[in-house]
Amino acid sequence: MVSAARFRHRVFTGTHLERMEQIMRQVCADFECEPAEFNGESNHVHPLVNFPPKVALSHLVNPLKGVSSRRLRTEFPGLARHYYRANKPWSGFSFAGSVGGAAVSVLRQYIQQHNRPV
């Protein structure tokens, strides 16, 4: 999955990304999913999640974005200046796809190559 910050603003710091990873891990646990990798940059994130076939991808993506949005707004009120119109940090789009046949090691390597901001 790839989720971009609203207007692709460079808003996330390392602290934001660390907290976002914790939040997304909690949401994954609620869905009996396993977060395999997480990284991001100042304007987008890349969570890689192993999820069972009984979980619809859209039913996982919506809570990941929704819960992280609510908690980030509560815990980091200073982020609001970057998304003043919609009152949420995420853009309206995300890319999420299943990669059942791809090597997970290749995906992990791609995600790990992204540099977290300081």
UniProtKB/TrEMBL annotation:
Species in which this protein is naturally found: Nonomuraea ferruginea
Please name the InterPro entries in this protein's record. Transposase_17, Transposase_17_sf
Protein name per the record: IS200/IS605 family transposase
Q: Which Pfam families match?
A: Y1_Tnp
Q: Which SUPFAM superfamilies match?
A: Transposase IS200-like
Q: Which residues form the Transposase IS200-like domain?
A: 2-114
